[in-house]
Amino acid sequence: MTRKDERGHRWTDLGVERAVIRIVRRLSPGFGRRTITRKTRLHTDLGWDDWYVLRVVKPIRRTLHESLEDRVVLALKTVGDLVNYVWNKMEDA
Amino acid sequence: MSRRWLAITALLAARVAGAQEPAPAAPAAAASAAENAPGWEVLVGHSYSSARALTQPATFTLEQERGQPLYTVVDAAALLRGSLAPRAWLEMGIRARGGSARPPGERAYGAMARMYGELDPILLAAGYEYLGDGHFDVTQPAATFELTPLGGAPGLGTWVSPALHLRWRPWLGVSWGKGVRPYARLSGECASGRVEAGVETTGWLVHGSGLGFIQGDLSVRLVGGLFATASAEAGRAPPRYEPSGRFGVGLGFRLGPS
Questions:
Q1: Angle B27-36/A79-89 helices, nearest 10 degrees?
Q2: Domain containing residue A20
Q3: What is the pLDDT of residue B132?
Q4: Out of B97, B180, B206, B234, which could bridge B75 as a Cys pair, Cβ 3.0 to 4.6 Å?
Q5: Among A31, A50, A72, whose Cβ lies nearest the Cβ of B35?
C-alpha cells in the first residue's frame, strides 16, 4: 500500500516508519540505533520535554513533505503515534 | 483551610478535554482522533513556567521557614492548555499557596495566560502574569516575552542518554510591569525509576541590582499521580522580592503528562 505526500511523492507504510524513526534517532543522539522503535515513548523513554517534541516538525516537513500541527504533535505519546500521524496525513495513491 | 484547598484540588482534577492523542493500533482512527480532538486539556501540578512554577506536583506539606514554627502548606496549580492555530497554542493557569498557620501576607496567588509559537530552532512565548500576596497589597502584574532554543545541545530538552535521565532548559525573557525587568531562567530535571528531581533558578535585574531565586524539589512516585515530595527554596521570591528560605516535606498530586 502506498500513499502520496504533499508534493506527490509516493511512500509505503514501512518507508514512512523508517524515515520517522531515522528522524527521531537523529534528534536523540545519546540513544543507540536499536533503542528506538515504534513503542518508544517520547516523553518517558527519550525524555523529550513539551518543547523539544516540536523539533520533529521541521525535519518531517523537509523529508516527508508533510506539515504537522503543533497541537497534535504535543499530544503524541510514542514514536508509533508519530508514524501513524504522518501516514494518515498522506493521501491514498 | 486545608480541607477547602484539597477539595479545590480534587475538583480541578476532573479532566475536561477528551482524548487528544491518536491510538497507535489503529492508524485511520489515530488521524481522526488527533485532528478532530477539541484540543483543550487541564493539567494539575504541572509546570507552567511562571516565576514560581516548577514541575513538582501540587503539594500538601509540612514546612519549616527561617525563624518560623512548623506549619502546613497547600500549594496547588491548574493549567488549561489548548490550540490557537496550527503553529501556536495558549496556556492559562492559576496557582495558590497558603497554609494553616501561614500569615496572609506570606500567602501567594498567581494567574497567567501565555501564548506560544514555535519557530524552529527557537520557541517564543508572550504572556501576562499576575502575582499577589495574601493581602493583595503587594502585587506584580507583568507582561512577559520569553524565548528558548528547542534543542541543539546535549541534554537540552531531552535525556542525555538512556542511562542518564538528565535534561535542562534555558530561558531568556523580559517582563514589563512595575518597570522593565530582564531575566534569565535555567531549569534542570533528572529521573531514575520512581524518583524525580528538579531545580529551577531565576536571576532578575531590578533597578540595576541583581536578584536571584532558586527552588528545587525531590519527588518519589508512590502510586499513579501520588508522590512523596521534599522541596526547598531560597532567595528573593516574587512578588515581595524579600530574602526568604524554606524547606518542606509532604504529599503531592499530579494529573496530566509528566
A1: 80
A2: 2-92
A3: 78
A4: B97
A5: A72
